[in-house]
Write a structure and sequence with these properties.
There is one protein chain. It is built from 11 helices and 13 strands. The protein is an alpha/beta fold and 333 residues long. The relative contact order is 0.11.
Length: 333
Amino acid sequence: MKQIFEERPAVKRELDQVHATMETVIKRVEMMLVDPLIFSKKIAFVGDDDLVSLFLSVTLEKIGFKNTDFLTVYDIDTELLAFIEEKQSKEVPIRCVKKDFRNEKTTDLIKVDVVFTDPPYTPDGILTFIDFGEKLLSKYGKMYVSFNHKTPEIQSFLQKEINLKGLNFIEITPNFNTYLGGSIIGNVSNLYVLQKSEMTETMKSSENIYTKSLKKNKTSKRLGFHSLYDLKECNSEVLTSVDNVRDKMNHMSQLFNLNVVEEKFHQFKPYGVSGVMVLKESHFTIHTWPEHNYAAVDLFICEETVDESKFMEELQNIFGSKRCELKKIYRVS
């Protein structure tokens, strides 16, 4: 594997290529293999100058897995695709497809369950790669996206655009990726997990697409946005004290301009805290299990005014969480 890593094609700066370290590539492969259902899924890579597909192919062959319809790589770099085809495992071959994501038609795409992409640095580059990946995803499919943290304005813009594509942020791992010579992105980037939302599938099947039909039928109204955060591998000491948890929740409410009307916190024995903040916008709650290094946080707001990826990052920061999963529910009448 080390030899393959050393022989890979040189980066092409005109394509914003920056190679991830071998440790990062191995972490990405390990992350995929943690899923026990991964062997029954199809995986596509939207750009893969880091050779994650190749490392995954070789690893799967070593553990005895065989599948000729498992991995696909889409990339504009013909030299890279040729290298992957040369080095791939015969037992787990990689389908390599030359694609320019900016202007090529997407009618011939094969649906997959998992998409992995590490797009260019620019907001347009990120959204172009994600847009192509979304077209590949089957219903409820997941997309793993790596990009460095942006300014609050750009981060908020990206989040809204990604949500409009029918994708929800469900997990974030800060500083997951490390790069060789990626000074323009600070040599590190976050890993975001997105999931194709159920609501998008429902909206596509609606017959009420004209104004006249909407007037005749009672229409649903979106009443709120309910975000469920599972904070895992937390610092247990932070979760134990009711005063500490209350302070953290107040910090979050102030930082994200949540208007608290009333609050109630309770200390359980021997440990554990539950807290409720009634907001003008709806509610903000927490339940902690220090013995499991876990906390469940709910945020229910009437308007989508909170940058959920930034909110998730701050939750992880103050509770010392190494992993966070987000489930998002639209409350509709």
